[in-house]
């Protein structure tokens, strides 16, 4: 039996989305009815498209075998995407082996929030999602492809690729991950050194040595931030092959999964008997499954923006109340850093996503009756991939956790409810992630200290200005103000204050990402300060209440919201490190609760 709340939330999403979804599907059916895309190109157009295809040129020109369009985010500056250098050749060889072809349709930009954290470049991060979607759309616009594979992993990259895939929703779309890097020093050890550096008790040399020991090779960072949350979603939503998310790069099993994914992309094209366009995979039930997975794993707060934007690209309207209601009935089944000591490799070894999906299905918390790129039904995703004689075979996955300190059954969760919650009140609409926050810190009421950037917070900390309980308010950090950068570098400072016995909370119209941890944070506040939101009316000393138990965000000082909004000098955000190029994005971007999209 499906959980009553899951049914109710799904039904209201379907009802809310009916008009837009119907129009979207009609467009996709029309595109599919046009038939194989290459047939509509002139001979000259086809010759241009096939001229660089080498040994595949003749097959493309004379045969009706399927052609895969590869959208790649490869660069060798990002550890998570460096393994993709080898993937196009693997995919081309795999396609040839079954009579098909594959071409790189386009490369799209991929930036790392870890590199740009705390720098002006971070102000391009959120907007890069829309750039990725548009760039992928340009690549697929040549209209010579029967299916598409997407090579991407990290924070804005997978959401951008999903948005693009839905723009070409009549094509099958398979996401081929690179996998996480092997484990280095523990994330907990790394966090301790960061906090020591923030308090002046560790040198920069010690900090650098710690960071290099943590981030040491190709693959995704091993903590459970936005990148690995993306990988979880692609599995829960049926766009990965079962069990593909957390297999390490450059291993025989990873290569075999890449080959299998390419061949599956051809098998589900409109030329075969199992036509599975992405518009049929990413329906309302798939998005509900993704949200349940987000809560059960304690995933990234960034997905409360990205999932909304992704869904809208397919005519589906999500809101933060959907997330909050589903969180209330979804148990937390995983403890992966930052809400535990384990990393994603330990999580995968303990049973991983296959075990978790099986548990949630048995608990009536996931829709089983969905289409996936692996076939009908989510039960396929309880299976484990194994390498046998050089090829992938799927076998029954574990039905018991192999480490109950990392992964638990639905009957014995770490917490009875998920870690994400909507907050609403006098200061607007916001979200919080409490899976790593101790219960005694779920409600904080204290005087506010107001800042307009995170560097000012760190300077105040260095000057010893935080001596009492405090709600740190960092405003003018929303998408219209400066692109909504993550305020990740505040985490060590706020954690240190809390460790000293102070009650501490953060309120911001910016983001904190999947790495937000043990300090109560009300983030994504809407309306943002630059839009005249109530957060622009408060001042130092106003008493703020952040209540994650009851979902409230209020200013308790009488008359505080009757003041005029303050303004801020945002001219410094307009130039340098590429920010000049994104002025139109800042002017046209929507609110965080509608996906912070410019397209």
* Strand order of the biggest β-sheet: 9-10-14-13-12-11-15-16
Secondary structure tally: strands? 16
Main β-sheet, in a few words? 8 strands, mixed
Whole-angstrom Rg: 24 Å
What average pLDDT do the residues reach?
A: 93
Tally of discrete structural domains: 3
Tell me the helix content. Answer: 25-40%
Class per helix and strand makeup: alpha/beta
Enumerate how many helices there are, as a single number.
21
Task: Determine the N-to-C terminus distance.
Answer: 39 Å
- pLDDT < 50 stretches: none
Percent of residues in β-strands: 5-15%
Shape: globular
Summarize the structure.
By secondary structure, the chain is α/β, with parallel strands linked by helices.
Structure commentary:
This protein is α/β, with parallel strands linked by helices and 599 residues long. It folds into three domains: 4-182 and 217-396, no CATH class; 183-216, no CATH class; 420-594, IlvD/EDD C-terminal domain-like (Glucose Oxidase, domain 1), CATH 3.50.30. Helix content is 37%, strand content 14%. The protein is built from 21 helices and 16 strands. It has helices spanning 4-33, 43-50, 57-62, 87-97, 113-116, 125-140, 157-167, 187-198, 204-214, 226-236, 252-267, 278-281, 284-297, 303-312, 320-329, 344-349, 352-362, 454-462, 479-482, 491-499, 583-588; strands spanning 67-72, 101-107, 147-151, 173-175, 371-372, 375-376, 383-388, 391-396, 420-425, 428-433, 443-451, 470-474, 504-508, 520-526, 543-547, 552-555. The strands form four sheets. Strands 9-10-14-13-12-11-15-16 form an eight-stranded mixed beta sheet. A four-stranded parallel beta sheet has the order 2-1-3-4. α6 packs parallel to α7 and α8 (187-198) runs antiparallel to α9. The radius of gyration is 24 Å and the shape is globular. The two termini are 39 Å apart. The model has no long low-confidence stretch (mean pLDDT 93).
């Amino acid at each position: 039996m499906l959980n009553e709340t899951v049914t109710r939330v799904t039904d209201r999403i379907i009802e809310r989305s009916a008009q837009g979804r119907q129009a979207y599907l009609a467009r996709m059916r029309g595109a599919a009815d046009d038939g194989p895309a290459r047939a509509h190109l002139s001979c000259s157009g086809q010759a241009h498209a096939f001229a660089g295809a080498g040994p595949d040129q003749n097959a493309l020109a004379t045969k009706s075998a399927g052609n895969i369009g590869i959208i790649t985010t490869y660069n060798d500056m990002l550890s998570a995407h460096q393994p993709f250098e080898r993937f196009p050749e693997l995919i081309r060889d795999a396609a040839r082996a079954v009579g098909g072809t594959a071409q790189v349709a386009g490369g799209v930009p991929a930036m790392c929030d870890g590199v740009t954290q705390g720098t002006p470049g971070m102000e391009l991060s959120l907007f890069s999602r829309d750039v990725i979607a548009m760039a992928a759309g340009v690549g697929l616009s040549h209209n010579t492809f029967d299916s598409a594979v997407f090579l991407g992993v990290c924070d804005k990259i997978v959401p951008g690729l999903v948005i693009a895939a839905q723009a070409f929703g009549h094509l099958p779309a398979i996401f081929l991950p690179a996998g996480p890097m092997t484990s280095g020093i523990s994330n907990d050890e790394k966090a301790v050194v960061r906090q020591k550096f923030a308090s002046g008790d560790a040198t920069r040399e010690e900090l650098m040595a710690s960071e290099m020991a943590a981030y040491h090779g190709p693959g995704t960072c091993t903590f459970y931030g936005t990148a690995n949350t993306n990988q979880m979603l692609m599995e829960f939503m049926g766009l990965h092959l079962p069990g593909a998310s957390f297999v390490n790069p450059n291993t025989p099993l990873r290569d075999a999964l890449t080959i299998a994914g390419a061949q599956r992309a051809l098998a589900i094209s409109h030329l075969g008997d199992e036509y599975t366009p992405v518009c049929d995979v990413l329906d309302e039930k798939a998005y509900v499954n993704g949200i349940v997975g987000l809560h059960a794993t304690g995933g990234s707060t960034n997905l409360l923006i990205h999932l909304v934007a992704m869904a809208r690209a397919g005519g589906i309207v999500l809101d933060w109340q959907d997330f909050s209601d589903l969180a209330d009935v979804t148990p937390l089944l995983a403890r992966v850093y930052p809400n535990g000591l384990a990393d994603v490799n330990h999580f995968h070894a303990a049973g991983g996503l296959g075990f978790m999906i099986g548990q949630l299905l048995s608990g009536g918390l996931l829709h089983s009756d969905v289409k996936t790129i692996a076939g009908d039904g989510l039960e396929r995703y309880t299976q484990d991939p194994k390498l046998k004689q050089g090829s992938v075979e799927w076998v029954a996955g574990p039905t018991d956790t192999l480490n109950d300190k990392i992964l638990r059954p639905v009957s014995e969760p770490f917490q009875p409810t998920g870690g994400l919650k909507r907050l609403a009140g006098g200061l607007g609409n916001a979200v919080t992630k409490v899976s790593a926050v101790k219960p005694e810190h779920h409600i904080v009421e204290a005087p506010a200290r107001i800042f307009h950037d995170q560097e000012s917070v760190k300077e105040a900390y260095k000057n010893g200005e935080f001596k009492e309980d405090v709600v740190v308010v960092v405003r003018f950090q929303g998408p219209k103000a400066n692109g909504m950068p993550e305020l990740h570098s505040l985490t060590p400072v706020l954690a240190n204050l809390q460790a000293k016995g102070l009650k501490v909370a953060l309120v911001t119209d910016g983001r904190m990402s999947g790495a937000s941890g043990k300090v109560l944070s009300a983030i994504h506040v809407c309306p943002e300060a630059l839009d005249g939101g109530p957060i622009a009316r408060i001042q130092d000393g106003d008493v703020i209440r952040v209540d994650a138990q009851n979902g409230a965000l209020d200013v308790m000082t009488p008359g505080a919201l009757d003041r005029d909004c303050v303004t801020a000098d945002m001219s410094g955000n307009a130039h340098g490190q590429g920010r000049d190029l994104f002025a139109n994005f800042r002017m046209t971007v929507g609110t965080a609760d509608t996906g912070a999209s410019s397209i």
